[in-house]
Amino acid sequence: MGVSVLPSHPLSKVLAEVFGYTGFREGQQQVIDAVAAGRDALVLMPTGGGKSLCYQLPAIQSDGLTVVISPLISLMQDQVEALQAMGVAAAALHNGMSSEEAAAISQQLQENAIRLLYVSPERALQPYFTRQLQQWPVQLIAIDEAHCISQWGHDFRPEYGQLGSLREMLPQVPFMALTATADAATQADIASRLHLHDPVIYKGSFDRPNIRYVVEDKYKPQKQVRDYIARQRGASGIVYCGSRKKVEDLAEKLHQDGIKAAAYHAGLDHKIREQVLRGFVRDDIDVVVATVAFGMGINKPNVRFVVHFDVPRSVEAYYQETGRAGRDGLPAEALLLYDPSDAAWIRSIINEQADEDRRRVEQHKFAAMQSLGEGQTCRRLMLLNYFNEYRDNACGNCDICLDPPRQYDGTVDAQKVLSCIYRVEQRFGMNHVIDVLRGSKSQRLTELGHQQLSTYGIGAEQSHEYWLAVTRQLIHRGLVVQNIQQYGVLQLTQAARQVLKGEVALQLAEPRINLVVSKPRVAD
Length: 524
Ligand code: ADP
Ligand code: ZN
Fold this sequence. Notes:
Layout (H helix, E strand, L loop, with lengths): L2 E2 L7 H8 L4 E2 L2 H9 L4 E4 L6 H11 L3 E5 L3 H13 L4 E4 L5 H12 L5 E4 L1 H4 L2 H7 L4 E6 L14 H4 L2 H6 L5 E5 L4 H10 L6 E4 L7 E7 L3 H10 L6 E4 L3 H13 L4 E4 L5 H12 L5 E4 L14 E4 L6 H8 L9 E7 L1 H12 L4 H19 L4 H8 L12 H4 L4 E3 L1 H13 L6 H8 L5 H6 L15 H13 L3 E4 L5 E4 L1 H7 L6 E3 L15
Parallel strand pairs: 3-8, 3-9, 4-6, 4-7, 5-6, 7-8, 10-15, 11-13, 11-14, 12-13, 14-15
Antiparallel strand pairs: 1-2, 16-19, 17-18
Helix pairs in contact: 2-3, 15-16, 19-20, 20-22
The structure holds adenosine-5'-diphosphate and zinc ion.
The site of adenosine-5'-diphosphate has 14 residues, from β2 and α3.
InterPro entries: DEAD/DEAH_box_helicase_dom, DNA_helicase_ATP-dep_RecQ, DNA_helicase_ATP-dep_RecQ_bac, Helicase_ATP-bd, Helicase_C-like, HRDC-like_sf, HRDC_dom, HRDC_dom_sf
Catalytic activity: Couples ATP hydrolysis with the unwinding of duplex DNA by translocating in the 3'-5' direction
Keywords: ATP-binding, DNA damage, DNA recombination, DNA repair, DNA-binding, Helicase, Hydrolase, Isomerase, Metal-binding, Nucleotide-binding, Zinc
């Protein structure tokens, strides 16, 4: 996100005086010039790319009214407050306010005393409101989160779908649609539903080159995260967990480690959440352990790392959450702890959904996330590819690029695991099978008589994580299934036979243990 200094641009004075910026970010000037020329625009910029300026600056500089359609009341209010603090006449109208409040704003609108009006899509479509709109000197309609217009987007909202009718009422007014996520189908759909006329399309790169993407096998997640954070030496970061309980447990553990950490989730009191957010922004809190509820309104440039304790449900979510790191452009890291059995669990939850369309979309989105986690190619290429940004060169700044997986003849390793699963009669889960392989002296093994098995201790020379990585690959290759209906017991498939009998050789990826994150787990 480079900034270009263009003192000659007619708007650079407003840019400096009102916003305090020294130049435009990539794309902003093109979009603003398009508005000045009266053209429609479709703006695709990543989160944090600076979309709001594209309509705020033309609005401030004009003497007419710019209407911004936005889906979230809290977001509208944040923007309105920020603008008012800069001395800009901005207001919001939504169905969550009293009729007195709404009347006062209407009065100001009548007097043309407002430059920027934020409205919810419901409000924008009310006949009373649209009649008024036709009388006011509207000079631009900006539609934020425009992907909500399209059924192809990941967050379709029916009232957004009807916004095209506004265009018919205001044929002379330029429309600007803005979004941070839209694949090609969604883009085309947005343009057609809004009846955009030959729009100027600006598509910024979604790459965040300063973020290093790292995926690590998840085996002892709490310990992995604690070790990781201990090495960050007070840097600012966010850890996303899949449940409130995990959030609280981990925040507590980090406290014990002497880390300035706090928990954040939707079940906490509003005041506490505010405190955490404020403490984080002011660097009083170093690490926020949170559910996805922690997102909106984090405008903190120096977040150095984002950890995913659990795999997100979509690449969009992963991208948005990791995107909170490194907004200042300095090096930052996104660490995903990935466990294929988490993925199996999420797939089963998705499959339970009654609504078939929704289920299909979610399955599709999660499958993409899963291949990002399990893939053996450059993470950034996969990520950008998902957003239809194609490149040839691997990035050099992800775990795969920095330490490419090596293939080896894994036949013997595979045979050890497969025969061990067979010896425990396909009735035990991954950790137990590995304990037998490594010759654990645990009481449970003794009670079960598993030290007597011929496979006991045949894998003692390798770590627990090593065998975890091998076993997960066997699952991935279809030689073993993990039966999630039965506590995750491992069972052999037909394909396992050939490998067990030595009829075929098996190439495996060399386990990449503790590449960036943790020290090996010591034997039990
Ligand atoms: P988006 O809506 O695309 O997610 P925002 O409009 O909220 O992004 O902008 C992200 C951040 O970038 C904000 O903190 C904003 O103040 C800052 N920003 C936007 N444009 C510029 C600019 N030209 N120069 C410096 N900072 C900018
Ligand atoms: Zn890479």
